Amino acid sequence: MKARLPEEYRGGGQAAMMRQIQKMQEDMARVQEEVENSTFSASVGGGAVTAECNGRQELLGISISPEVVDPEDVEMLEDLVLAAVNEVLSKARDAMEQGMEGAKGGMNLPGMPGLM
Fold this sequence. Notes:
Layout: H1 14-36, E1 39-44, E2 49-54, E3 59-64, H2 74-104
Antiparallel strand pairs: 1-2, 2-3
């Protein structure tokens, strides 16, 4: 089965298609910059541990409530920290993926460099 291009891309519409691809790449670069400059946070254990990262998935900080610091149960604190870090990194990753999907505007061009 042959793929059919929309009417505006048939014949001399290649220039229009290239403009659309260029706009999509510009939108994706803008979204990437916006997400990278965003800050995300996640709390676990009812706010016992909070982690913060940027859109580049760099950890910016961790807050630990003093009441969860129990020298007899370090393992629980380690689990809370790990859960908070994983959650905040997941939020940053999801924001980037959603932003890129929006910028692509539904286009799927496999094999095109620079496109996801």
